[in-house]
Amino acid sequence: MRLSTLVASLGLPCLLAAHAAPPPATPPRTTAEVLKASQPGDWRAPDPARTLVMELASGPVLIELAPRFAPRHVANLLALARGRYFDGLAVLRVQDNYVAQWGDPEADKPDQARSLGAADLRLPAEFDTALRGLPLTRLPDADGWAPVTGWVDGFPVAADPRRGRAWLAHCHAMVGAARANPPDSSNASALYAVIGHAPRALDRNITLVGRVISGIERLSALPRGGATLGFYEQAEQRAAIRSVRVLDELPPEQRPALELLRTDTATWQALVESRRNRREAWFVHRAAHVGVCDIAVPTRPAPRIPQ
Length: 307
Description:
Helix content is 16%, strand content 24%. The chain has 6 helices and 16 strands. The chain has helices spanning 3-10, 13-19, 31-36, 71-82, 216-220, 266-276; strands at residues 43-44, 51-56, 59-65, 90-94, 99-103, 129-130, 137-138, 148-152, 155-160, 165-168, 174-177, 191-194, 208-214, 239-246, 258-261, 299-301. A hairpin with a 4-residue loop joins strand 9 and strand 10. It starts with a helix and ends in a 6-residue tail after the last strand.
């Protein structure tokens, strides 16, 4: 007896239908298709009051700050920028596949170091914060460094729900406050950006203050320093910092016109899925997995608003 005849005679069509795979709610899409279908509300402009623009000879580097995770360091950094502390300082160190670091070349010489003005000399470490209340967009995949990962305000975040703590993750383009051995020895007067692999072993060992949202290539393209952690051995090797400004100090028409994809929308979830399972024609294998540092938040030019 044929299967269809047997099913009909037993009255089982509904039983078999219940085991059939339901059709997908939306067809799978590539990253390009997700972005093309995005709506204006899926994008946001960086907050001018918590975004820095660092001018190098090669052009601007935009840094979005994360006061939700490092409020005291961000406040100090903003005070330093508004006080023109960084103007004329330099990129001191570029270590291949690791970080680019900038600050005062004479910081270790009290009689020659630049004054911090009204900024704090030392700050308590801000390695993590309370998980409770954070608007975390959770990544479904496992992470070797933390029980939970995802994004908050566009920043990559790791978390431990059992401890109730969350922290920024050391992904590419993240910016941290350099310190000496004591955990409370940073004040955001010396900063670094990750230009290579994601050094996640640094998580919860250094205070992260934000991330480069535009211009990371200007730091990663700098010549590598010497054998000692990439520090330049000669002063003339350093890349000069022309200025660092808080974006709200610039007239609106002089601010970089940039939008970032929000990480708290259905469009972001679709983009994450497009990266978990690559559907571009080139890919043979779909990994069904992605790490929090494997997805860069997309940016796009924003239209200028007439003043």
